[in-house]
Amino acid sequence: MKIAIAQLNYHIGNFEGNLQKMLNATTTAKEQGADIVVFGELAVTGYPPQDFLEFDDFIQRSEAVVNSLAKAATDIAIVVGAPCRNPVVEGKDLYNSAYFLAEGTIQQVVHKTLLPTYDIFDEYRYFEPASEFKVVDYKGSKIALTVCEDIWNVGNENPLYKICPLDELMPQNPDFVLNLSASPFSFTHAENRIHVLKANVERYGKPMFYVNHVGAQTEIIFDGGSLVMSPDGTVHDELPYFEECIRTYALESVQKGGVKHVQPKEKMTLIHDALVTGVRDYFGKLGLKKAILGLSGGIDSAVVAVLAQRALGAENVRVLLMPSQFSSDHSINDARELAENLNVQYDLIQIEDVYKSYESLLQPHFAGTSFNVAEENIQARIRGMLLMAMSNKFGHILLNTSNKSEAAVGYGTLYGDMAGGLSVIADLYKTEVFELSRYMNKEGEVIPENIITKPPSAELRPDQFDSDSLPDYDILDGVLYQYIEKRQGPKELIAMGYDEKLVHRILKMVNRNEFKRAQVAPILRVSSKAFGMGRRIPIVGKYLN
Amino acid sequence: MKIAIAQLNYHIGNFEGNLQKMLNATTTAKEQGADIVVFGELAVTGYPPQDFLEFDDFIQRSEAVVNSLAKAATDIAIVVGAPCRNPVVEGKDLYNSAYFLAEGTIQQVVHKTLLPTYDIFDEYRYFEPASEFKVVDYKGSKIALTVCEDIWNVGNENPLYKICPLDELMPQNPDFVLNLSASPFSFTHAENRIHVLKANVERYGKPMFYVNHVGAQTEIIFDGGSLVMSPDGTVHDELPYFEECIRTYALESVQKGGVKHVQPKEKMTLIHDALVTGVRDYFGKLGLKKAILGLSGGIDSAVVAVLAQRALGAENVRVLLMPSQFSSDHSINDARELAENLNVQYDLIQIEDVYKSYESLLQPHFAGTSFNVAEENIQARIRGMLLMAMSNKFGHILLNTSNKSEAAVGYGTLYGDMAGGLSVIADLYKTEVFELSRYMNKEGEVIPENIITKPPSAELRPDQFDSDSLPDYDILDGVLYQYIEKRQGPKELIAMGYDEKLVHRILKMVNRNEFKRAQVAPILRVSSKAFGMGRRIPIVGKYLN
User: Fold this and answer.
1) Identical topology for domains A2-265 and A271-467+514-518
2) Is B402's pLDDT higher than 90?
3) Which of A451, A460, A535, A469 is nearest to A506 (CA)?
């Protein structure tokens, strides 16, 4: 028995594209001598299809793809994830299912039991959980078919579910386990995944084939890293990260165990490659090519420029340098040097004249007030507006350069530096942005050293530094991480040794700025808790603020 | 046995405020001679508390409020909704519960069984469903305690759930049913609610007391309209819409039936009052007072200005008239007349000079291109920027004036007319905005007639009209309603008689503009399907576009 894993980059709702990709992979798997080829969870629709699932037309198109794949399932079995209608009138209308296709027809449909409904996941919004458990018989083998989360309820201290699908299947004595996944990237996920598969293999003693998606769907990135685990708990093979791959394995050799093909999991390498994938697929899947961003001379826009250039190519990236009367010379020079290092088109646009024309227009209304955040924001918004004007005129998509620390505390201007179609690094704390910049310079200076070493400043008034308004980033990021990723409250944070006043000040800033984060572009997710669809906080809430 | 219904306006996370409000209501209920006072679902935390529920500190504060209420439950029983920890390690960590408090302690805790997880609801994200069913014994009565959705699985053609909590409780022969709700407003909801309660009463023959929230939490509005239903299927009483109210009922007289107190449910009255509530509570709950908006002379901003003035008072509303070289005289005159009718402060700011300074700044880059959407958007963004500058300087919150039709097809400028802290009418199709304007003028002209009768125009280039770029609003809104509210696909729409090309064009516009809607302010929800948290569509999706 030979099993092919097809780790592919699907596109939500692109039924023709997904079908063609899977037909090609089926041909490849056949060439590799496979008896079965396995695709990912909801591979037919792409993941997550979200509320498209509520359209009957969408489900019909998905069913048509499943039928086409069934027809192609000759001399090979195809296992593919797709929604399946629930024939029972009570309960949700759909199942999240794995279709077993062979001999030109649908042989069996197995439904997902454990429906993740937390963080970015909303599966119980759409799907009814499975209530029956039956292995698939194929060519004399018994196969335990599972979908993603179904294998994640093993070895947790606080399991989310009361049921364990493989416990239900084991009495039927399957020969091996297939798991169709769409398991989103975070920088610790590849490690966690191996632990969970190990826990399963240790409990059940069966070979496991775990098939993941690769590529990004708006903010959600899939890293691939599909796994084949031997019954002795060793990783028989781990597929590459961030690229499509089709590989075939002989069951007998997986049974034997003793091989260990594991890739390094260095945090910054993973994050770097994930973000490049995220930018590339956002553009690719929307049929776009060209990006624009403002280069301030600061670290955030520098890092985004490098990512954009690597994702889209230098010829598709354009940057604007938009100094005001408050910009320092070094900012302009640093930005120019970076643009030249990256070999991207750059233009210098002085914003002082436009600023003055706003000033004179507002003078009758602002008379008697002093320079404050209103005037600072005007500068940031002029820049946002110029970038959008170029975007509208020439079709470049504006990349947003906010980081997670400033997004958390609201240190940014709505419709100014918070503008953009995709937020590239807003799931990286400022300290992580610095780490990433150093990683980028590891094999030769790309980002001018001065950009990395100078103290961060928004340069919206004379001699302004981030440290005037914010705690040191080391401390700020520590508190933010505990609050956002770890859901620690004020008491826990103070018990960790953080200053009481500072804790209250930071949590207040985070909660009061929910309204700003409600209006930002999708944020490429690389942590276990990113701002956006995976973190839902009421705007009018009066908690800790 | 006398039962008091307390229909209150809670505030998410405002534990002290919610406690004080419930203690006051308990005093009132005692004065009315009540044996029991009933509050709403999750009244302690406010609804929906969303991911605040993931913070242990948040749950502790909620528990403290429940304990304080228990101490106040002397000479009266208090029934209140709050989260309850799940002591079992498997499953979700919390229940969504109704606490029965009497004689100074927690007597019983009943958990919600049916957890809505669709549209704006995410309850399965947080809560474990109940698996036990036990009536509450109090002063010789048996009480069936239910939470919101628990009574909504009766009489549906396509029930979402496999269980019916009252079916489980009836063998224990309860004397009456209490239902603690947080049931969001839509303009058909008050009607639906009566149907569902009637279906329950017809099935079980027991008096029902349904207690709703009132007031808005960001985009979600609660209309109140709490109900007392007699076993004969008549509405014994319906509490007022959009105001707090505490009323006490003798069980015997409810048993008798034959009374019918029902309020009129005229669509535009309900929508008008809901939107006024939505604006008022957004400001009130955030501790804000003053609003600003741009008056274009068009219908959308006119309607929002009226709502703002009614919600916040004329003294708290400021408007800007910002004509460009493309604005018609009548626009300025109409806007001025409206501002004078409303008695709100208005200022005229000509944007042409700023526009020209952008033009000259961009001239080297735009050379050789012709006037297009880029130049149109610059004007819209100058206006957004001026409004935000006033907002930042004086603390007025910008109200967004987009309607649902333009939000649907992307006929608006990001960071321009799509800016704002709260989107007031973006759940009203253009045709409904006209309806609402006529409703506002019913008792005397508030909105100048010319604003209502002239053809809609964005006035961003000479002689521009909406009809140049969009289908007639009557047709557009019909297609949008079927697609958005009713999830009809292209085949169904064409079968309804809509032109095939037009259908494809409209659906494409809707799906391609998901990226714009991802960045807008929260939208006050008045329909059964609003843009925002209740409608989740992938941005990179390639479906119907």
Assistant:
1) no
2) yes
3) A469
Closest-approach residue (CA) in chain B for A392: B374
Q: Which amino acid is at B447?
A: I
For residue A509, the distance in angstroms to the closest alpha carbon of chain B comes to 14
Q: Which helix (H) or strand (E) holds A68?
A: helix A56-72
Under 8 Å CB-to-CB from B156, ≥6 apart: which residues?
none
The domain locations on chain A are 2-265, 271-467+514-518
Q: Which two tokens stand for residue A498?
A: 């953080």
Alpha-carbon gap: B93 to the closest alpha carbon of chain A (Å): 8
Residue whose pair of structure tokens reads 């019918």 in the numeric block? B260
Q: Are B186 and A117 within 8 A, CB to CB?
A: no
**Residue A23 class from Cβ within 10 Å (0-12 exposed, 13-18 middle, 19+ buried)?**
middle
The answer to whether the complex's ipTM is over 0.90 is: yes
What letter would DSSP give residue A472? -
For an interface test with B, which of A496, A540, A544 has the most B Cβ atoms less than 10 Å from its Cβ?
A: A540
Run of H or E residues at A361: helix A352-366
Q: CA torsion sign, A103 to A106 to A110 to A111?
A: positive
- What value does the mean pLDDT take over residues B7-22? 98
Positions in chain A short of pLDDT 50: none
Distance of CA A101 to CAs A66, A72, A182, Å?
Answer: 9, 9, 20
Give me the residue label for tokens 């679902």: B41
Between CA B357 and CA B355 the distance in angstroms is: 5
Q: How confident is the model at residue B204 (pLDDT cuts 50, 70, 90)?
A: very high
Q: What is the pLDDT of residue B100?
A: 98
Q: Is the pLDDT of residue B259 over 90?
A: no
Verify whether residue B245 is a known catalytic residue: no
Per-residue pLDDT, A157: 72
CB–CB of B392/B361 below 8 Å? Answer: no
**What CATH architecture applies to the domain B271-467+514-518?**
3-Layer(aba) Sandwich (3.40)
pLDDT digits (tens, 9 = 90+) for B316-348: 999 999 999 998 888 999 999 999 999 999 999
Say whether B107 sits in a helix, a strand or coil: strand
Conformational region of residue B368, where left means phi above 0, alpha means psi within -120 to 50, and beta covers everything else: left
Amino acid at the residue A458: A
Q: In this structure, are residues B423 and B314 in contact, taking their beta carbons and an 8 Å threshold?
A: no
Computed over every residue of chain B, the mean pLDDT equals: 97
Q: Is B294 annotated to bind ligand? A: yes
- Both tokens of B297, joined, read 């002379």
Q: Is any Cβ of chain A less than 8 angstroms from the Cβ of B288?
A: no
Say what the pLDDT of residue B128 is. 98
Across the strands, what pairs with B7?
B245
Is residue B265 among the annotated active site residues? no
- Beta strand A317-321 with B136-138: parallel, antiparallel or unpaired? unpaired
Condensed to tens digits (0 to 9), the pLDDT of residues A230-276 reads 999 999 999 999 999 999 999 999 999 888 889 999 999 999 999 99
Using CB atoms, which residue from A356, A377, A421 is nearest to B388?
A377
- How far apart CA B540 and CA B545 sit, in angstroms, is 10
Position A463 scores a pLDDT of 87
CATH of A2-265, one of 1.10.1060.10, 2.60.40.1120, 3.60.110.10, 3.90.870.10: 3.60.110.10
Min Cα distance B332 → chain A (Å) is 18
Q: Determine whether A166 is exposed, middle or buried from the number of CB atoms within 10 Å of its CB (0-12, 13-18, 19+).
A: buried
Predicted pLDDT of residue A158: 74
Structure confidence at residue A260 (pLDDT): 84
Count of residues for chain A? Answer: 545
Q: How far is CA A430 from CA A456, A475, B351, in A?
A: 10, 11, 38
pLDDT tens-digit profile of B39-62? 999 999 999 999 999 999 999 999
Which residue of B160, B216, B541 is in closest CB contact with A13? B541
